[in-house]
Amino acid sequence: MFDLSKRANRDLIIAGENAGKPVYIVPAAKPTYEELVRLSRKGSHWARITVEGLHNLAHGRLNMANIFINPVTKGGSDEFIAVLPGCKVTIEKMSSDCYKILYFERDENYFTQEETNAAGLYRVVSEADGWDTRYIKDGRLKSEGPHHVAISDRGYEDASFAAEQAALRIANAPEVSPNQMKTHGFALHYTPGKDKIGGLVHAKTAFNPLNDDVLNASALQLAQTMYDARKIKAVNWVAEFGGSAVLTQAMRILADQGVELKTHTAYLYKPKSRTNVAVKQAMRLNLSINGDFSQSSALDIVGNMDALAVVKTRSQHDDSYRLGHATTAVRKFVAKAGAAGATGLAVAGAGCAAAGVSVPVISAAAIPAAVVFAGALYKAAKGAAGVGVDLLEVAAPETHDKMKKGGWV
């Protein structure tokens, strides 16, 4: 009698059967793959990206779709781990020039998430008592504008709360009109998770935003949204706080594929990752960068440390960046560096180092008189209470925003 069990235990081909390199999957990994396909067919944005990424193996394009391809040495076989939305996938490159998917390490936060806390894109519309937030399953912006897209930090209880916070912050971007936001709403790219992204608490991400594979899944989704919107004019991508690291990774993914977004703009509000890394990726995409690329408070070391490096990068590679722009940016940096004593010295030292300026000893005597003078003016203008407000915004941004909304600061 014919043995069906042997046939059931064979590797399944999922792509490349008729063209390209065959892509197989072992039986043990089949249930997760089938669940991904089911979610993709139901309209899940993240699942679609993951399934397409696996199918792209047949055309040798996995490296084009993902930042993190980690090689694994195991028993002499040629294996690697691909980081995709919802899972890390262990894949073997066979000697017969085909691929075999061996194992899925699932992130259950993706497979079990509800639409109130799903990673991805949301439509946010103004209502009488706040903002209505709704999940966009296909992750695409509508063609009609205006288009303002907030890229949120992590650490919010759900997407609705993230949208409320983002609404207060992205209105500070040069290309964003608060009146337009109230009339037309905005879009939110949301990254779920308990911990904030970057900053001095998570310095590894702050200093090397391109190397944090935990953010790769969210960045891939954002990159797909940005790619799908490439033909829409005047899209403003505004990252708030740690969202700067997600935007930086997404821009890198697109730039590596040769994508250009000439009519789009990018802006970082109180970024918690290095701004010079972000501006380099933005320039690779030919994004329009109008005026300042970012905004930070005087006491934010991470947000300010690349200020001089950004001036240097834009002066060297951005033809629209004139001497007047550079002079204004340097003056702002000097004022911030002298704003709060020891913190100002740390900002100045970090900024000089990031820009490639050698400062062997950071002391009061080593800082130009202009810094001290500007700091004195800053303190005189704002007073101790003003410096305290800056400290509150750095340490507890949600509390600061609530107080500002209530007119208390």
Automatic annotation (TrEMBL):
It comes from the Bacteria. This is Uncharacterized protein. It comes from Sinobacterium caligoides.
